[in-house]
Amino acid sequence: MKNIYLKALLVLCLFSSCEEAKFTVYTIIVKNKSNHNIQFFVARPGSEFLYPDTTLPTKKIGSPVIFPSLSGYVDSSIKWEKQYSKLPSDKMSIYIFDSDTLKKYDWEDVRLNYRILKRYDLTLQDLQSTDFYVNYTE
User: Fold this and answer.
1) Where in the sequence is the domain holding 85, given as residue range(s)?
2) Which residues constitute the signal peptide according to the record (predicted)?
3) Which of 4, 27, 85, 93 has the most beta carbons within 10 angstroms of its beta carbon?
């Protein structure tokens, strides 16, 4: 009986294949071409407010600081094409903030006074044409 189990186990091992799990990441890169530190937020499906509503979220967003001449990114395991199909319009908003502003003011003040440096309202074609790069300049 043991012999049958061992043979069955051997057959299973020989005929089974282990393919590596394929995990693709889709990225939007924000390049800081200014002289000050910035942070950004992408209003994508699942966000509280989506374009054409450009209200900032009620809860403070967390994003890393992007130093001058460097880049930051946002990743997704879902293709951007699919994410765009879930939006109420054909545009997705990317908000750029001055890091010092986010340090100086509480989030409610940032929201109510719309203390952003710039907002990009981008179509999928806009992002595709730049290879999913967004260049922030002053």
Assistant:
1) 19-136
2) 1-21
3) 93
